[in-house]
Amino acid sequence: MTTEEAARVRAGQPAEREVPDGQEYDVFARLCPSRDVFAELADKWSMLILMSLLGCGPQRFSELQRGVGGVSRKMLTQSLRNLERSGLVLRTVFPETPPRVVYDLLPLGRELAELLAPVGRWTERHAGRMVAAREEFDAAHAEG
Amino acid sequence: MTTEEAARVRAGQPAEREVPDGQEYDVFARLCPSRDVFAELADKWSMLILMSLLGCGPQRFSELQRGVGGVSRKMLTQSLRNLERSGLVLRTVFPETPPRVVYDLLPLGRELAELLAPVGRWTERHAGRMVAAREEFDAAHAEG
DNA sequence: CTGTATCCGAAATGATACTG
DNA sequence: CAGTATCATTTCGGATACAG
Question: What b-and-e string marks burial along A84-123, b requiring 16 or more CB atoms within 10 Å of the CB?
Fold first, then answer.
């Protein structure tokens, strides 16, 4: 496959992704519904929220805000609403005073979070190298 | 861990993430360098580009533009520059006329792409359910 | 073909004040 | 506590024209 595709690339032919028969969704297709979903999930705050819920368990609104450093109430609310709307996160309101609202992963969200967590850990492990690469790149492109 | 953390949450204590000793980077920390890196990668176009390069092999600029549906030249250029700058993607210019520029994954980028690919496939598999969940949510919140 | 430069409207985001 | 509403600002991103 890789070799075959590479050959196709070399030949100047379009690099078509083979879509398994019967698979209706393709994140690479601009008009595919899965693209909308993907665009929502491929977001800094959404990903951090899902990862935080996976790593720390159910959390209140304010706990999430402390856990996800730098997120504003507005963005936290917005992102949580999207995740709730798409069926990834459960929002539970305890009718106390003051009110307590707890967010938790639904099975669907947990599945996704378990795929995202490695991405976060990978980023932490290799951030040093990437920052260094940036500095090299910037230095090399400073004079020219 | 999950249980322990959950207990802490219930007790109203801060849901602190345990950071392994010696790990200097934390994507949840607003000021951590890894957060900048993560924010760059947790992006629709960056993720799709990496996934396309992994799935289809080395590709020219125009091939990538066709492969990643809906991306404009501007965003494609910008995202590729970022990925190149961070050491994830290699840009090779063949001095022909017209010029040919081929992008490929560097080892670092390939590692990441291999973590992202499952996220893309997961999204495609579950997009239907998420779209349905959205419709339910919207319907339930329409009347008020 | 592979970009760069510029403009401009749209969308994202932060800050702030207010509410149940 | 957990939001909502509003405004100001920034950033995103598409369109277009141009260039090597």
Answer: bbbbbbbeeeeeeeeeeebbbbbebbeebbebbbbbbebb
